[in-house]
Amino acid sequence: MTTTTTDNPVYKLELASSPHLHSRWNTKQAMWLVVLALLPAVISAVIFFGFYQLLIIAVAIGFAVGTEAVIKKIRNQKVTITDGSGIITGLLLALILPPNFNLAFTAIGSVVAIGLGKEIFGGLGYNIFNPALVGRAFLQAAFPVPMTTWTKPNFTEVDSITTATPLSAFKFDSVATELSTMFIGNIGGSIGETSAIAILIGGLFLIFAGVVNYRVPAAMVIGAVIFGGIFWLIDPIAYPNPLFHLSAGGFLFGALFMATDWVTSPMTLKGMWIFGLGISLVLIIIRLFGGLPEGVMYAILFMNAFVPLINRYTRPRVFGEVK
Amino acid sequence: MKKQLTLSKEYLKGLWDQNPVFKQALGLCPVLAVTVSAINGIAMALATTFVLTSASLIISSIRKLIPTQVRIAAYILIIATFVTIVDLVMKAQFPELSKALGPYIPLIVVNCLILGRQEAFSSKNTVGRSLLDSLGMGTGFLIALFVLGGLREIFGTGTLLGFQVMPDFYEPWLVMILPAGAFLTLGLLFGAANSYLQKKEQDEKNYLIEKYLKAKKEADEMGGQAKWN
Questions:
Q1: Which residue of B lies nearest to A138 if distances are taken between CA atoms?
Q2: Touching check for B25 and chain A: CB below 8 Å?
Q3: Number of domains in chain B
Q4: Is residue B44 part of a domain?
Q5: Are B148 and B41 in contact, with CB atoms under 8 Å apart?
Q6: Residues of A with CB below 8 A from B176's CB?
Q7: DSSP states along A23-77
Q8: Is residue B155 part of a domain?
Q9: What is the mean pLDDT of chain A?
Q10: What is the model's pTM?
Q11: Which of A6, A119, A178, B226 is the most exposed place for a label (fewest CB within 10 A)?
Q12: ipTM score here?
């Protein structure tokens, strides 16, 4: 029989590999804070696109968590669905899909996001690419037409079922959308990406709660203003102004929720600036010169691939080390 | 000297133990490029097998005549002869298939599977063994291309060998017939093959350990009389 001494506290030596970064929250708490921060975006989705979007979100989360549980079972590992990461992946994936998206496709996207985006690399913490974006990239390649069919938001006078997003309107028809409309979110676009104000509320909450580092979003905003601004100054008619870049498409959502993913963004402070600026540079190139109107997803995935390299070259010097 | 395999093993090793695609990862360029459908995969594999077998026969029969210094050039010349035959025959008899496979038929010349087998096997073995080896490798290549092409066709277009296998409501996944689908499918197949092998190895190890422990226990019970190496 073992005797437990209540007088002496039990000291446990925990062994972990570097980096020894300290965080205010443990993984589980942080994940639930992210879910909380995404609520304004979910509410804006219901306001602008209707209650059907909740069904998409439920299917995405259900299949993401289910896939994770099944794969962990097959591989005889501890089932870790309660850490909330599968829920986040499903929720994020649902919010970047087009409104009224097919539920079966949503389920495929969730399975791919968790299976190919995360578990195949070994689970949470080992993935190179943001799982939700992997899922969306797969859907974009598998079902290009449904993925670019944008249901119109609820409060428009135009009598049609679908609409163009501000980015495709600008790119293909040279129509600029009013910035104030884009700020509130009454525009065509992905489920949770249209309302800039709802995303900002959630994102700023995450930054002030200390869950995500402000450097990556800040670097992305600065990068978009610089790189977008250069082209705008060259030709204000052919190229949109930097504020349009900031509020259009998935920029804010990507900057605040996708690029700041703990696993797939750099660990060093200098690396975060490089990462954010890099995303913006790739994004502006895709938006202005690429074949697609929007490129936040590919820009973030592209820079995700560079994260190990960035970490390696921005490693802080050991104290006292002479160069 | 290395122990020679039995003749049947010489053929069978290409099917799985030394499968050109899953084990040796040879000739992946046509594997990835042409497998948008099962029929393309089969045609490519048959063309490759023909070139491989014919070249192996010629090279193994004249292996002592080829000077070592120019052997690669000699191999390529012989392989290119048969590739030209295949290319012309396919253009004349199966123009549609020839169009679908495009430049990948002429590119068989530089398929590393063919050159690799000549260098590693035909130049050192008898005609009979070379024939069996190349036929085995060709069959292994056929299996790999058929599996890959079949999977991509089922998911990418909902058919297999032109027959509809998926229900009507199935929406084809366009990505599977794009290059990205080839990499994804091949990677998953590699992963499945490797994890199967690892499991088998682990099982064998566990079995041996169990056997050892059991035998040791029995020996201990006998009073430690038995000898252990």
A1: B175
A2: no
A3: 1
A4: yes
A5: yes
A6: 142
A7: -SS-HHHHHHHHHHHHHHHHHHHHHHH-THHHHHHHHHHHHHHHHHHHHHHHTT-
A8: yes
A9: 84
A10: 0.82
A11: A6
A12: 0.76
What is the per-residue pLDDT across A231-290, written as a single tens digit (0 to 9) for each? 888 888 778 888 888 888 788 888 998 888 888 888 888 999 999 999 999 999 998 888
Best residue of A71, A106, A119, A138 to probe chain B, by most B CBs closer than 10 Å: A138
Note whether residue B198 is domain-resident.
Answer: no
Condensed to tens digits (0 to 9), the pLDDT of residues A171-208 reads 776 677 777 777 777 777 888 888 888 889 999 998 98
Q: Is residue B216 part of a domain?
A: no
Q: H/E element holding B229? A: none
User: Chain B: nearest CA to A66, how far in angstroms?
Assistant: 20
Split at pLDDT 50, 70, 90, the class of B169 is confident
Q: What is the DSSP string of A130-180?
A: -HHHHHHHHHHHH-HHHHT--BPPSS-----SB---HHHHHHHH--PPPHH
B178 contact A CB<8A? yes
Condensed to tens digits (0 to 9), the pLDDT of residues B7-49 reads: 888 888 878 788 888 888 888 888 888 888 888 889 999 999 9
Q: Which of B170, B174, B202 to mutate to test the interface with A (most CBs of A within 10 A)?
A: B174
Q: Residue A105 and residue B174: Cβ atoms within 8 Å?
A: no
For tokens 């007088």, what's the residue? Answer: A7
